[in-house]
Amino acid sequence: MADMTQLQAALESIIGSKAKLINAFGEITIECAAADYYDIMQTLRDHEELHFETLVDLCGVDYSEYKNEPWEGKRFAAVSQLLSIKHNRRVRVRVWADDDDFPIVDSVVALYNSADWYEREAFDLYGILFNKHPDLRRILTDYGFVGHPFRKDFPISGYVEMRYDEAEGRVVYQPVTIEPREITPRVVREEHYGG
């Protein structure tokens, strides 16, 4: 625990007022605005006291509902997990996109090349744009896919479906034709159970 206290003190003195530090469950989370994100990530990587040289993970998060309640605040964030092999420490960085309708944050691929496909995944699934990413395109869904399927307002059935059209001799996209149905749970009566 002393190491965690030392890390928090170092982060407070080095990063200063550019970010908010949260120490919970034995982990430190650095929350920052999109304008400060790239500089903070570069400081975390390059400062000798910190030396977080490895980006282990990066993902998008949709906070439109959090803990099954409406969320007050910005909707989209990119969350990174950083590791300092030199100091054997971990830290989490959460950057909030300023605009919920057009979420955009800076890419950190120039700092951590491991962020490349993670940022593409966050773009594909959440619609978070990463400014100055070298090749920001879909990575898990089809090129013609409409929407971002991990957003909490994305319909479970999707917007379009694809099928092979014999007459056209190719795959075509069309609006979803699944009819909503009422699901009635099966009732098991004790007198007939197991027999």
Model description:
This protein is of the alpha+beta class and 195 residues long. It has a single domain, classed as Beta Polymerase, domain 2 (2-Layer Sandwich), CATH 3.30.460. The protein is 20% helix and 31% strand. Helix 3 links the parallel strand 8 (104-106) and strand 9. The termini are far apart.
Query: Strand pairing plus helix content: what structural class?
Result: alpha+beta
Taken together, the total number of domains comes to 1
CATH H-level superfamily title: NADH:ubiquinone oxidoreductase Nqo5 subunit
- What percent of residues adopt helix (DSSP H or I)? 10-25%
For the termini, the CA-CA separation is: 58 Å
Please trace the helix and strand order, writing H or E for each element: HEEHEEEEEEHEEE
What do the pLDDT scores average to?
89
CATH top level is Alpha Beta
Beta-strand level of the residues, as a percent range?
25-35%
- Give the number of helices: 3
Characteristics of this structure?
alpha+beta, 195 residues, 11 strands, Beta Polymerase, domain 2, 20% helix
Topology:
Blueprint: H1 2-15, E1 19-24, E2 27-33, H2 34-46, E3 54-62, E4 65-66, E5 69-70, E6 76-84, E7 89-96, E8 104-106, H3 115-126, E9 129-131, E10 160-165, E11 170-175
